[in-house]
Task: inverse folding
């Protein structure tokens, strides 16, 4: 059967009273405990049992890299709640060391193995919640069983990695995969003084982002001494006496494989849903490979729910199935299921894939569609890059870059990415909130955001982003991305590219083939340009380029575009093409 | 005549071309220059002149306290743009040292005096923009003309204050008024080692906020050594040899006036619009005392516009006239007028009064309606206080308090206030964005905000705020504010107040008359309570109190409320009543 993604609510039912349901939850990290706690909040009468095959419950998986690095001193800080706490607080029984190995949805029973003894028993349920989470993907290459090779998913994993570093003479580490966990751990290991190599099969670190943005992450890693190998795959792990000594890698040019020395290897290429129990229950798996659920987290099998990383989600904007396993979503879906199965009316509204990661001195964040995903979905988009400080320079403001994507026809805001040393988390959350409410580019300027020079500029970077994006959507100040300009120049198209900066700035770097007319001279020297030829104006970041664009448009130039993000962004994009 | 607040747009008109309008702007700080710059961006053909009676233009008034304190070293940093820059960048002529002293709207002329020479001349306009700003209010008490008595509005003011401190032996300062400028300057003067007294006529610092929140600002000031005198008025300033030596104050109990020694006095009790020119033009003044404008910033007189602090705004939610002079709004309205007078279609969407101020280690922020203003407007509201860390404790998270106000019938989010050491600016901007889009309490939980433990908790404080507020709106977890509980207890009403905390926490402070049943014992000891008597549960901050509330409701207690913000908030509210 197929999942109906919107179903009637049961909001009219009382949340308490009636017969006492027996709720069984499988998995006790974020989503499982959220479901149990919310069910209890809604009803005192339910009997709620959580089975957990491990010992640790309700831990912060996202905090593990910081335990490895020592920024978090003890694992206890990441596992503040134990089974006793849940029993007292919520009257929820969490039974650790018990693995649910089978389910009979017709009989509504689960088979449970007590791992310490091997004893097997059967339990019954009225409602079953699958919160079985994900497991790290380990590539099928030789040597992953060597000592010193780790994944980082549980507190036990984190303890093993840290012990390895502290008890052995670990000097060099290789991290396979440049996603969240890989980059967070890279930062932490550099902080511990290790030599760190990051191997990434895609062209850039943070491959979920657009290349022009993730190239900035590459640069940050390299600036902090990380050897980043992109477009590179791991062929094998090598070892001596059972312990890892190196990682054999090969780049996509097909050259000779080479060995990167390493006495510690972290495999962080991704995760896959733990579907064994789902398959035993016969629930439908969605197109993303995670468990298909409706908006109340119901699977295709009656009385079986799925929450957290093992469950599929859907894109808030398009309604299409989406799977982005993140702790924030796991908590949400757990709460939604716990509410729904006890008479509440909560429904999931989908995800924007909003995320953030600290990479050394930068916050790297995104929400909604990237340019690449929007274009892949067939969208005609307007793209702009905005480079602005988080606060005024006079109070120590530092620049961030925001890349925003809007639908060309309607101006609907589709997504944003932001990178910078400060204030990025705020701007991405404001943009995520705006997107959630269906904001258009023009709406951003009108937001009444909190201004004081200690926290923001008078016009916030979000305002500037909206203003420039809206102008581009309306066509009053059209933009051209570095990629598009580079592509059109490479085809030999006649474009007059006008650098309106000072001679001093131009001497540092410029767009090849551009002519130089400083903005202050543009009105008098515009005659040097041909108003009928496509024209691109640019400055350092885009503001003066826009002023120049306005000047030329105002005196009759028919096709003028401003270079999005200016020369700063153009040079970054150029590096993104060449830094491999 | 009366202003029509919504008028037909003229968006269909071309932004360029047509006859070249002559635009005259009076005032060159934030709004005036924004209007001029936007007009130029829309059209190259306009002739644009800005008259400014002072010498400084386009400066950051909000940065002045930080120049006084030395956090900003030079005034140049606050005045990065001069008339030459505007001429080159925008072909806008800024004529400083010229005061516009009269206007003839029928003839469309202004009379201008060149202050250095006294020469008077007449200029013509097609569109006239009043950006005359505000002036500090100086109370009518003796002695304000003494040396050492200042206001802080312009760079010249700031230079005078700083010179006074650096060139004289200033040890004690009195700041009259505990609003933004007063508090920012108090912080900066303490940083310079001065003894600082703040005198405020209202009951608390930051009187724009609700008393239970502003009491926290009072405490922060006092914790940093500021002598804060609330409910206190200045009677006179005293001096010797023409220089101020003290401030005579009197509290509202009618006691004997006393003198606070001071060799520096800053008067920061508020500002009033500079209306001379508006009156000369005959434009309508709104009910707030600022210039009435429509949503395109047009005054009641044709071809006369008003922008920035001198113009009235309106509440985004209610549409009612509102006047909250802030740099963020000034910039917006300037841009809107500049656009509208050159064929654009921008319209002001109103304000939420969103603001933020740093007071020593706290960010103090608000958006939308306070509880007091909502109630004064006759709204039936639900109020909740949420105390949560900005990040997990294991990565150094520190607690903030968010007070949120929603309409009881609909759950519509009306306003929020937030105070804390970190992450407050982000949450208030997210809430302001949500309110702008008409968010209801239930919407907040569903926001897909950016989570990583380096930046936020898995459920963000905004999520928690929404969850608890929504539960209170729905009546599934009703709240009681400290004020309401205290009031009801004081009337002798029979309420059983249940403290569900540990004995250790209870020993520190508790609600008088409460009974003590720790949450873990509540299920078994509930028989000690009467299910028919109104019951209030509480813990330290509200989470366990809510759990206890759920337990009691689940076993049939009919009227259970959770104390909003728990004992922490209750004690703060108690201090708010007594700390004067």
Result:
């Amino acid at each position: 059967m197929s999942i109906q993604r919107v179903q009637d609510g049961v909001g009219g039912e009382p949340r308490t009273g009636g017969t006492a349901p027996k709720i069984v939850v499988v998995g006790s990290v974020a989503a499982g405990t959220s479901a149990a706690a919310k069910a209890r909040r809604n009803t005192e009468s339910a009997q709620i049992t959580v089975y957990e095959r491990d010992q640790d419950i309700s831990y912060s998986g996202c905090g593990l890299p910081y335990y490895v690095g020592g920024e978090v001193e003890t694992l206890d800080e990441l596992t503040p709640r134990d089974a006793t706490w849940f029993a007292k607080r919520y009257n929820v029984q969490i039974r650790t060391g018990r693995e649910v190995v089978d389910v009979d949805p017709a009989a509504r029973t689960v088979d449970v193995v007590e791992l310490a003894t091997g004893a097997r028993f059967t339990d019954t349920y009225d409602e079953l919640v699958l919160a079985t989470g994900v497991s790290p993907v380990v590539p099928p290459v030789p040597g992953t069983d060597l000592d010193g090779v780790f994944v980082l998913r549980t507190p036990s994993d984190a303890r093993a990695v840290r012990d390895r570093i502290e008890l052995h003479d670990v000097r060099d580490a290789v991290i396979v995969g440049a996603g969240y966990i890989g980059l967070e751990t890279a930062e932490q290991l550099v902080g511990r003084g290790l030599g760190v190599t990051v191997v990434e099969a895609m062209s850039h670190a943070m491959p979920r982002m657009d290349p022009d943005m993730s190239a900035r992450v590459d640069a940050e890693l390299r600036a902090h001494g990380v050897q980043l190998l992109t477009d590179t795959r791991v062929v094998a792990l090598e070892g001596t006496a059972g312990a890892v000594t190196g990682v054999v890698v090969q780049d996509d040019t097909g050259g000779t494989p080479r060995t990167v020395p390493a006495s510690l290897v972290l495999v962080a290429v991704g995760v896959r849903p733990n579907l064994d129990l789902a398959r035993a229950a016969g629930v439908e798996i969605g197109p993303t490979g995670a468990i298909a659920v409706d908006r109340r987290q119901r699977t295709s099998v009656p009385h079986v729910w799925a929450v957290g990383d093992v469950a599929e989600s859907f894109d808030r904007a398009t309604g299409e199935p989406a799977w982005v396993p993140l702790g924030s979503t796991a908590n949400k879906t757990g709460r939604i299921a716990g509410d729904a199965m006890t008479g509440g009316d909560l429904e999931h509204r989908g995800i924007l894939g909003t995320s953030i990661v600290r990479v050394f001195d930068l916050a790297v964040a995104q929400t909604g569609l990237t340019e690449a995903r929007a274009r892949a979905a067939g969208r005609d988009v307007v793209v702009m890059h905005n480079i602005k400080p988080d606060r005024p320079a006079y109070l120590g403001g530092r620049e961030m870059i925001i890349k925003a994507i809007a639908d060309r026809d309607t101006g609907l805001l589709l997504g944003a990415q932001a990178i910078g040393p400060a204030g990025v988390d705020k701007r991405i959350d404001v943009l995520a909130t705006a997107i959630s409410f269906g904001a258009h580019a023009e709406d951003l300027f009108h937001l009444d955001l909190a201004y004081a020079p200690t926290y923001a500029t008078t016009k916030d970077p979000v305002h500037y982003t909206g203003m420039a994006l809206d102008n581009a959507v309306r066509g009053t100040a059209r933009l051209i991305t570095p990629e598009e300009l580079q592509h059109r120049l490479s085809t030999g198209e006649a474009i007059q590219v006008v650098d309106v900066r000072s001679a001093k700035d131009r001497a540092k770097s410029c767009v090849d083939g551009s002519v130089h007319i400083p903005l202050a001279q543009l009105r008098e020297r515009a005659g040097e340009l041909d108003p009928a030829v496509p024209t691109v104006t640019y400055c350092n970041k885009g503001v003066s380029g826009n002023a120049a664009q306005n000047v030329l448009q105002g005196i009759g130039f028919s096709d003028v575009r401003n270079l999005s993000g200016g020369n700063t962004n153009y040079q970054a994009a150029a590096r993104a093409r060449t830094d491999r």
Observations:
- Residues 1-18 of chain B have pLDDT under 50 and may be disordered.
- The longest helix of chain B spans residues 327-340.
